[in-house]
Amino acid sequence: MVKKLVLIRHGSSEWNEKNLFTGWVDVKLSETGKKEAANAGKLLAESGIKPDILFTSRLSRAIQTANLALERADRLFIDVERSWRLNERHYGDLQGKNKADALEKFGPELFKTYRRSYDIPPPVIADDSDFSQANDERYADLDPSALPKTESLKLVIDRMLPFWQDRIAKELIQDKTVLVVAHGNSLRGLYKHLTGMSDDSITEFNIPTGIPLVFELDDNLKPVKEPYYLDPEAAAAGAAAVAAQGQKK
């Protein structure tokens, strides 16, 4: 029997609609995002996939998405675990800045490097920035040295993989159907780990908001087939929209 892992990128947030770098800043879903989340639950219900356990980040937009999706799928009763290791990539000093303004300031090449490079992080955020998490109570249990001030995708993968190995993989091995509701970069990192996608390829790979992405895995947690979206056409359009971010004010 194959093991099922379902990934959902949170619905569109208030800052997505303002075209701002968000990262670890805790913003809520927009009205569009709430509809996307509910639709994700509808797609789950129609597919017959029934998650047994949910993992989310500690950020509200992922938590809201999970709650709305599970409510629509009639699975609100399942166990839940949250971890900072599933948080979005920390965008450093870019957090809170408009993407179009950053594109104009840094130019296309450096902008793309900061936004999509595999191993080059943006500039570090200052602790006294309005968009820093230095004193955020969500992370009071973390050693301050573990709290990022900027990250590349590689660093996201480095901090995400221990949680994959220690928690998510263990539930899959026990034949649980696992739902992970998180963020573009933490889910891209997990996708790269599971598929073996190259460092170069992952920089061009986009995960759309609010469309469940299903992995069917063998006993070694290797994909037995290509991962698939529950709404492929909407996923293709959504991925294209993600790729175009930064072009508008």
From TrEMBL:
Enzyme Commission code: 5.4.2.11
Pathway annotation: Carbohydrate degradation; glycolysis; pyruvate from D-glyceraldehyde 3-phosphate: step 3/5
Keyword terms, alphabetized: Glycolysis, Isomerase
Matches recorded under SUPFAM superfamilies: Phosphoglycerate mutase-like
Residues reported to bind substrate: 9-16, 22-23, 61, 88-91, 99, 115-116, 184-185
Protein name: phosphoglycerate mutase (2,3-diphosphoglycerate-dependent)
Residues forming the catalytic site: 10, 88
Catalytic activity: (2R)-2-phosphoglycerate = (2R)-3-phosphoglycerate
Site positions (Transition state stabilizer): 183
Transmembrane segments: none
Biological process according to GO: glycolytic process
InterPro entries assigned to the protein according to its UniProt record, in alphabetical order: His_Pase_superF_clade-1, His_PPase_superfam, Phosphogly_mut1
The family this protein is said to belong to: Belongs to the phosphoglycerate mutase family. BPG-dependent PGAM subfamily.
Gene source species: Saccharomycopsis crataegensis
Alphabetized Pfam families for the sequence: His_Phos_1
GO MF terms, alphabetically ordered: phosphoglycerate mutase activity
